[in-house]
Amino acid sequence: MVDQEKPAERAAGTAGQPTTEEHASDFAGVPDGFQRLWTPHRMVYIRGDRPSDHAGTGCPFCAAPDKDDAEGLMVHRGETCYVVLNLFPYNPGHLLICPYRHVPLYTDLTPEETVEFGHLTQTAMSALTKASAPAGYNIGMNQGEVAGAGVAAHLHQHVVPRWGGDMNFLPVIGQTKAVPTLLEDARQALLAAWPA
User: Fold this and answer.
1) Known catalytic residue: 54?
2) Is residue 35 part of a domain?
3) Active-site choice (76, 94, 154, 156)
């Protein structure tokens, strides 16, 4: 049964003071104590309108090398593979190692691509260590949509720098990630740290 009493008719509260009830309508437009992180770019993933997996301009990993380095978030261009910042980073400096060829699986790489793919992963770790001194790394590939690949048709390996305390409740509860470094600032720091 819902208590229908008016605030003045309620039992005395703490220290003999009457309790009062405030209505939600009294708060419209009143600032609260929360700061909001607006991430409208994530709506394409929430709605399921992810980038196309088709080779060419529909695939973000095929399109990135055709852009200038700043626009494409390019960190390094190799012979068969390249390194790019993740547009939706888990942490500052989150890198992706990608082959230029539009192939879905690690087993589809040629021997030459496999060697450069591994070498660029090592170099990315070294540059991240020099640029931002992370305490550890997550490195991995999700191959196939069922395995969690956002762009399943174009192979890419994540290199995610990690620091103690870099995770909190926001990603779990609010599906929001607070990233304290702008993408271009992270790219510039990596360019300065990348071996010549």
Assistant:
1) no
2) no
3) 156
